[in-house]
């Protein structure tokens, strides 16, 4: 998921940086500052998630968690992910500094879209329905991210079909796992701490 | 109860799988006038067979193209003693960029290279020529270089993998930064609030 320095053309990099800056500004503006600790915790979760590889058959995958981050944070996913991606570049050498804008956009925009798409679903009074919407959010954010990665590569000259196929196939296991993880996270958080997902307790239980 | 189960699940997920991530790792080194290189990923996979590596000089002129073999290795025959730049696109946003400085190539190659003064190697070749009087010196030098390169190769690979691996300090450091930034944000927020209250009062 992390595109490295040198893979993208300058216009793509510039567009990514500008859109990310806009997203971060909007995120900071819309962020409820009482929830700042949540933003930090989820940012930290994303930071480590990319480092933990789950072996699957011949290959290994890592969680991205942008669906869950989107559901919990909305637009604040932009600043949270920007900081996590920046620190990943510093400490792990994932991605790079020039591509930071594009990488943040590719991961945070799907998170925001999932927030708008699945926010009402996970508030459903039926836990089953909520879990399904959580799974859709988890898997959907990965699908959107792979598509955006493919578009970034295509705009920089790589064949879209080829890039999209390679990235998409590589991430099918991630989509499935993210779907499960997000669904169970939604179920758990609904029980333990509904406010974490911006849910109204009375609405869930009432 | 549920909370404990959650924490336990997370811990179980984390502990056994502390492997490094999917970074491209690569290296190039000169063996005589041949430049050998390898491309792989930090999880141990090597680059796909037939990955095209483009070779440039320092001005960006293409010097040639070579393809990797099944083990992610490639070889390029240098015919000038200049800096060689290598570039390969492994798709999905993975690219490899490496540079081999001119001074690692043998002096016998022509080129607009800067003259490097290495008395040591002259001395070494002198002693070598003394002991093996009959043998062609250039041939011997090439043989030594090849032998040393062969010995050093596994060490290089290990070192590369080691460098690509992030340690516990990196993880804890990153988390610390995030929480620190959060703390700063909360502190700043608190100050704003206090200011507002003062202004209102």
Protein described:
Chain B: It comes from Marinomonas communis. Chain B: This is Nickel transport protein. Chain B: The chain crosses the membrane at residues 171-188. Chain B: Residues 1-21 form the signal peptide. The complex is a heterodimer of chains A (206) and B (201). Chain A has 206 residues and is mainly alpha-helical. Chain A has a single domain, classed as Arp2/3 complex 21 kDa subunit ARPC3 (Orthogonal Bundle), CATH 1.10.1760. Chain A has helices at 10-30, 36-49, 66-73, 77-91, 100-118, 127-155, 160-170, 172-192, 201-205; strands spanning 53-56, 59-62. Chain A has a two-stranded antiparallel sheet. In chain A, strand 1 and strand 2 form a beta hairpin. In chain A, helix 1 (10-30) crosses helix 4. The radius of gyration of chain A is 17 Å and the shape is globular. The model of chain A is unreliable at 201-206 (pLDDT under 50). Chain B has 201 residues and is an alpha+beta fold. Chain B has 2 domains: 21-164, Immunoglobulins (Immunoglobulin-like); 169-201. Chain B is built from 4 helices and 7 strands, in the order H-E-E-E-E-E-E-E-H-H-H. Chain B has helices at residues 2-14, 119-131, 137-164, 168-200, and strands at residues 24-31, 34-41, 52-56, 62-67, 73-77, 84-89, 95-100. Chain A binds chain B through residues 2-4, 6-8, 33, 36-37, 39-40, 43-44, 47-48, 50-55, 59-60, 62, 83-84, 87-88, 90-94, 149, 152-153, 158, 162-163, 166-167, 170, 188, 191-192, and chain B through 2-3, 6, 13-14, 17-24, 43, 45, 89, 91-95, 97, 164, 166, 170-171, 173-175, 177-179, 181-182, 185-186, 189.
